[in-house]
Amino acid sequence: MKHEGVNQISSALGIYISTLKTEFTQGMILPTVNGEQSELPPHPVRKAEEQKTTEPVAGNALKSKSIGVKIPTCKISLKDVFLTSPDELYRVFITQEMVQAFTHSPAFLEADKGGKFQLLDGSVTGEFTELVPEKQIAMKWRFKTWPEGHFATITLTFIDKAGETEIRLEGRGIPANEEERTREGWQRYYFEGIKQTFGYGARLF
User: Which of 24, 85, 122, 169 has its CA 20 to 30 A from that of 133?
Assistant: First the structure.
């Protein structure tokens, strides 16, 4: 009985010491036979925990990225002179029949603040945001080929020049790649069209 008890105690101590050595040496730097140092492989449980802590960080980083696309825009300015009064020129821009005359196409206009308009067979649409008789017209304005929902802000200012009217156009928020097309469109379809249709571009002696 005495010998069996000693053997059981010795066996239990051997397992305990072996377990202690294994846990104590986890992650330690141990010398090799050649005198070089090598690190024991990381504990599998610890490695799994490290992976768990890094995965949410990566997920959060992806969520923080912006998903919107910003449109590069520009500003244009135009100036022209018409041989008519500010009152007459103002009415040309807000009267449906006159707009249809100088654009040579069907048009729809609601000449009030907040009123909608559609010109050139739907190629141009928008909304009047400010109407000051003889002085100024401001509008939200877009070509149908522009990104959906994007409008430029167009402001027309009428300046009395004693028998002539100087018109100044300022356009903001125009897509950068549409700058030249927009400038040429206003000059050709609006300014030149008005002059040719109503005779505001030539002096009558």
Answer: 122
